[in-house]
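Field: COMPLEX_INPUT
Field: COMPONENT_COUNT = two
Field: RESIDUE_TOTAL = 496
Field: MODE = joint
Values follow.
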Amino acid sequence: MPDTYDQGNDLTDYWNAVRTGNSRAYAQIHGQLHPVLYRYAFAMLGDEELAQDVVQELFIHIWFKKEKIGALQNVRAFFFTALRRRALNQLRGLRHLQVLTPAAPDIEFSAEDIVIGQEQQAALQRQISHYLNQLPKRQKEVIFLRFYEELPYAEVAAIMKVNYQSVINLAHKAITQLRAQIGKLPFWWLFLSVLLNNL
Amino acid sequence: MDDQFSPQEPERPPFRFHRQEVPEAKTAASWQHIASRIAGKKAGTGRRRVWTALAAVVIVPVMAYASYFIYCHIVAGSTREFRTAYGEIKRVVLPDSSVVFLNANSTLRVPVEWDPEKDRSVWLDGEGYFEVSKKTGARNARFTVHTPAIDVEVLGTKFNVNMLGRRTTVSLKEGKVQATARAPISKGKSVFMMKPGDEVLVEKDFSQLKEAINTELIADWRNHRYHFDNTSMADISDLILNKFGYEVVILTPEIAQRTISGDLYAEDIGQLSRALSITMNINIETKDEQMLFSVKD
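Field: COMPLEX_OUTPUT
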């Protein structure tokens, strides 16, 4: 399985140390995973404070459960999965309480997330982030995990608790749709994007 | 940019992402918090944790109440007190012509002297609905309602404050208020800028914001109306104990699991008891200071 993002493996040694109660090793894991997990939590919850809280509580919870959890094959995927469950519970909780508010937010991309060519062109960035946000939730999540965080497909599948082929299908659908929508954009933009893909 | 994908993998989207950097300070702050929470477990196991827990459970609320009462006593010499008995509702007009409706079993302390140039403060225990007049004094004279759990700072408006059991809620009907929890909050925010239809709830170290509640129903107790929406028996019991002084005793355990939805009109405990017994199809017997709930045979 080709893998472009494999720091995940370094963490196994740290995790084994953590299992013996080594909090310095846990600090290493936290240092590597906090930014990634925080971004994911923020994309799902849309609130900085809430995202920071969820990630902190996750690390605290896992520390006290470390003996029970035991050995891990992919430490990063494990944290991602646990975080996803937590964030979803959080959203369910919010939805339950806010009786009249619209459905809970899912992953939301912003214009600053998008790069086109050398310069960032505000209008296009906005247009593309708009297209992205129109995608069904699960397609968006695949795009986020695979192309934003650049996790391998196998890990994305593990995090989303679906099989490998389903993730591929979701990504394929999302990309096909994005291409079709972006295809409707003016010609000069297509030129830029072709240029970019061939870099 | 030459990522290698296995053949069956779809291509990339026709653009790239720019990953937002998470500031290092944020990661550091996160670890600091985690480290403080996971430390100590290994060292002074049992006792230390018990003390920490005790400190959180006992000292925090005690301090909050203590500071509230000390505050009240300091100003007691110069305050006027309005009280309502069980089942009683009172309308109080404040010197600045703001109006407060006091629900049953509540106390409102108001300073005897009002300096229109200065901030206005009142102290509430129980439940009250406030219609605060647009300040007549200095431009920035604020109006603040203090309770043991929350301070509500007001900017010309109508809102309800209710302390029921361990919960304090602030519901805003019109205008703008800022609600600030007095004790440290570990779950949720401690300061809320509220807009109409917002309801803030504080219970111990937990806070929560409900949005878009029906503002028509705020403080409808002034019209002797009770609105229940999937309300638990525990909440009903709290209400009856708090507003009417009767302890609810549930003789048939099955009733404790029920929830009630709907609107009831009741001017006194007798009417409330009858309304509840009809809507829930149960027997309610009132004895001394107790109400006994049981299923009909």
